[in-house]
Amino acid sequence: MPKPIHCIVAVAQNGVIGREGRLPWHIPEDLEWFTDQTVGGVMIEGPACYQELGKALSGRGTVVVSRDEKKVFPGASRASNLESAIAEAEKLPWSGPTWITGGERIYAEGLAHCSKLYITRIHQDFLGDRTFPKDWQKTFTRLVWSKESRQADLSYTFEIWER
Ligand SMILES: NC(=O)c1ccc[n+]([C@@H]2O[C@H](COP(=O)([O-])OP(=O)(O)OC[C@H]3O[C@@H](n4cnc5c(N)ncnc54)[C@H](OP(=O)(O)O)[C@@H]3O)[C@@H](O)[C@H]2O)c1
To answer: Across the chain, where does the E strand assignment appear?
Structure first.
């Protein structure tokens, strides 16, 4: 049985996911959520995401999608396109799902491969230069789980959607 492929993302009300190479917000509970879900699986991410994290995260596999063969990503595998990255994740010795973890283009291409979407919806607009596909609800139509939360003056909802 191939590993399931899921997507995990935190999105502002206006679709923003990033600004100048960083997350535009700091929500410790969302970082914990991300860790809890992805541990034991394999993350597929772009080079800017790898750089933001500064390393391959422990307790899970990482495949970085880059066409630039000169770039090195210690602790991670490299693939030159998304399909090869998914094939590589399938081979790695982690039994959990394969996770599409961004950035912008990886999400845009990766959603077509995903059976579930783990989305943290932040109920506020943010300034930013990277966005999540606006039409994701055309693909993911069934909300199967949700939990409201807040931190200081920021409120957000953790949601899991299926096709
Ligand atoms: N809110 C969230 O949940 C979330 C999650 C992740 C990231 N982010 C934010 O998003 C930003 C980083 O993402 P980003 O979009 O700027 O960069 P990125 O996806 O990390 O990296 C972009 C690079 O990925 C490579 N690439 C992308 N698609 C590819 C493909 N199909 N085939 C081959 N290579 C491909 C290319 O690199 P080469 O030129 O090396 O080929 C491209 O320049 C940051 O601001 C980060 O905080 C937010």
So the answer is: 5-12, 16-18, 42-45, 61-65, 77-79, 98-100, 116-122, 130-131, 142-151, 154-162
What is the best residue among 33, 104, 105 to mutate for testing ligand 1's pocket, by most ligand atoms within 8 Å of CB? 105
For residue 94, give the DSSP letter. Answer: -
Provide residues with CB under 6 Å of ligand 1. Answer: 9-10, 17-19, 21-23, 45-49, 52, 65-68, 71, 80-82, 101-106, 109, 130
pLDDT digits (tens, 9 = 90+) for 89-108: 999 999 999 999 999 999 99
CATH class of 5-162: alpha beta
pTM for the predicted model, two decimal places: 0.97
